[in-house]
Fold this protein.
Amino acid sequence: MDTPHNRVILSGYPRNIFNQVPEEVNFSFQSEINNKVKQFKAQGKKLIFYIPTFRDYGGNPFTDAFNLERTKNFLTKNKSILIVKFHEVDKGSLDDSGKDVLFLPNGFDVYEILGLCDVLVTDYSSIFFDFLNFDRPEVFYPYDFSDYESARCFYFDYKEFVPGPIAFNFNELLEILSKTLAEGSREYSEKRKKLNSYCFEFTTVVWKNILVDY
């Protein structure tokens, strides 16, 4: 039997349509944390998401890459919140380190709140492709570039391909973030849009035509 058209969603990856799900049909199991992040947004805070990929050669992508005290000072000065989500198979974990840093638990689906993010900071994670749908600033932080390049190969010329500024150390990261929060990153907008159209055929969903009574 044919499936009715109004039960079929034409979209890109399912994970990329969470931001478009109406509240009345979003039966989330992580609403407590989602609401906490929404409260930060409602308070006028800038949300910086740091989402690093897994490193099979070890290390902790937060403690190896951030100075916590300087990070806290930066966030206070810039009225921002840093939200950290490790890769699912990464064994590294940290407790919350103050009111301005939130570590999301293992198993948390960041795609439900990705649309709240003002600036994405990542390294080699494919999440930067998904974030292209929002056309917002992306900052790349490959603080261990040589080690990662030696351990794994890239599918493309990393430094030429990524649609955002690159910071190779913590000082550069703070400089770039400070500029990005103040000015945005319009210089990379066309590159983001071009890459997005290259990667995705469908980017929106018309939810009013989707039946939700199962």
Remarks:
- The chain has a mean pLDDT of 84.
- The CA atoms of residues 46 and 80 lie 4 Å apart.
